[in-house]
Amino acid sequence: MKVYSYLKGILAVVALVVFASCDDDYNSIGSNIVGSDNMDLQSYTSENVIAYNRATGPVQADSYPLNSLGVIDNPVFGKTIVSYVTQLRIVSGTGAPSVLNPEITKVELTVPYFSTLVSTDENGNQTYKLDSLYTSENAKFRLNVYESGYYLRDFDPDTNFEEYQKYYSNMYDQINSAKIGQRLNNSEEVTQNDEFFFDPSEHVIYEENSSGEQEVSERLKPQMKIELDKDFFMSKIFNAPGTVLESDNAFKNYFKGLFFQVEDTGNGTHLSQLNFAQGKITVYYKYDIEEGNDAQREATVVINLDGNSISLHQNQYSNNYMSALSSANETTGDEKLYVKGGEGSVAYLDLFAGIDADGNGVSDELEELRQKVEDEKWLINEANLVFYIDQSQMNSNSYVPNRLFIFDANNVVPLVDYSNDATTYPILPKYNKYLHGGILDKDENGKGYRYKFRITKHIQNLLKNSDAKNVKLGVCVTESISQIAMISLLNSAPLPSDSPYKYIPAASVMHPTGTVIYGNNTADAAKKLKLEIRYTKP
Q1: DSSP bridge pairs for 72
Q2: Are 42 and 28 in contact (CB under 8 A)?
Q3: Contact, 500 vs 474, CB < 8 A?
Q4: Can you spell out the DSSP letters for 105-135?
Q5: Gap between the Cα atoms of 57 and 505, Å rounded
Q6: Residue 117: how many CB atoms within 10 A of its CB?
Q7: What separation in angstroms does the CA of 518 have from each of 221, 314, 515?
């Protein structure tokens, strides 16, 4: 979906985000004590926050519930081309259909798109708008569908087959070199191959009525509909050797899958997110009922696209983005933080990172605050991390992500504030946990200008418990706030087991866009990253 369309036209959600993002509108935790005659409401700002960039490198990219397909050309981060490979699973019957003189009439591959119904006219014709689509005007790309010759096994032999096999986003060359034969989507209709685009049109199916007239029998939502080579499937299914179609494992060994190869044709951004596991191949065929009889029957074989899969990324990063990553400074922090999904980058934060005069591993600032909480009976009502967007870079063509996610990088889990936030918004689930935040705030011109996280419980625990570890925090983009599973990074050098740089949220890899936000090492005091704490004391 285009990022700027998330809230447009939905007044309730606008009100929701305003409520969840404005400083003055927050209902403080423990608000029953705020304003009491014998309490003093105050604020504290910690500027000892070190924030820096770190590239993810290749990321684990196998069997996600959501995958991108296409080309995204971002003026800030560069160009990414995303292809896809998946196993197949035959589901209609066991073995090749035992029929007389089978003849394939059509082989059709379908994958549904995410879409919203916009209108229906008086004749029942429906108009849709595609969601999860990033596109520039009239953009297209070349799509080639090949038989894959690369076997995607379930378990890793290096772990004595005790752990699932991991596959990574940098495997395009391996998959491409293993493709077999000519492309299967060889229709003369160029929108199915050389000039492919995600078509928002509904699919109308007609059938002949008793009067011999064509009438609408079914209306289908927008979806990828591609005809595949009939001769190939005749050989692969009906002329399959032995018993290779009689079990799922045998079939996956015999027909290793499909490779959806994307080629950039220089037509700009055109990328959509898809749930390929809902896709299928339908082989339509007819066969003779008996020898010497012209009577025939029609039937189908259905093959699902829900086996092991890999999202394959080819990146052509911009010079500015590469420079920002290569010059990252973990000691002093960075001026700008480049947070990008896919095979991209994450921002890491160290809170209370000031001087440690006594060398005990706890900063003087943190020790002082802990003492005040104990001696002066501070009650932490609210704590926020606020990230301001570099609007000069993130213009309207940069596809600003609608939400960021913050996590405990040392323990590879969400913060306790995430777990404690039970707020939901059923119409748009991506706005669930809106008090914890991370949602894009927009200015009066409708342009994104900041992200804000409420981390009150995390700060309460850190200040009240002297033995609480001041963990490193990670900030990344997210496709879905409900997706908190962590995945592995394929680091170029071995890292210690307790390294915070070994895992990131899978939802970050599923999201194709990025944003540039100000870090701590900027001269712009108004945009500088800070930790804001509101507290009361007797």
Answers
A1: 80
A2: no
A3: yes
A4: EEEEEEEEPPEEEEEE-TT--EEEEESSEEE
A5: 14
A6: 11
A7: 42, 27, 10
What is the domain partition of the chain in residue ranges? 3-61+318-537, 78-90+112-222+240-279+305-314
What backbone phi and psi angles, to 5 degrees, belong to 37?
-65, -25
Max alpha carbon distance in the chain (Å)? 100
Tens-of-pLDDT digits for all 538 residues of the chain?
A: 433 333 334 433 333 333 333 333 333 333 333 444 456 689 999 999 999 999 999 999 998 999 999 999 999 999 999 999 999 998 755 566 788 899 999 999 999 999 999 999 999 999 999 999 999 999 999 999 999 999 999 999 999 999 999 999 999 999 999 999 999 999 999 999 999 999 999 999 888 887 778 888 899 999 999 999 999 999 999 999 878 888 888 999 999 999 999 999 999 999 999 999 999 999 999 999 888 777 899 999 999 999 999 999 999 999 999 999 999 999 999 999 999 999 999 999 999 999 999 999 999 999 999 999 999 999 999 999 999 999 999 976 678 999 999 999 999 999 999 999 999 998 889 999 999 999 999 999 889 999 999 999 999 999 999 999 999 999 999 999 999 999 999 988 889 988 999 999 999 999 999 999 999 999 999 999 999 999 998 8
Helices and strands (H, E) in the chain, number of each type: 9, 31
Please state the pTM of the whole predicted model: 0.89
Residue owning tokens 């066991």: 94
What amino acid occupies position 378? W
φ/ψ (deg, to 5) at 176: -65, -40
Instruction: Classify strands 100-112 and 115-120 as parallel, antiparallel or unpaired.
Output: unpaired
DSSP-derived letter for residue 419 is H
Whole-number Å distance between alpha carbons of 78 and 20 = 32
- Alpha-carbon Rg for the chain, nearest whole angstrom, is 27
Q: Are 59 and 530 in contact (CB under 8 A)?
A: no
Tell me, what amino acid is at 313?
Answer: H
Q: What is the dihedral of CA 27, 31, 37, 43, to 10 degrees?
A: -70
CB 45 within 8 Å of CB 532:
yes
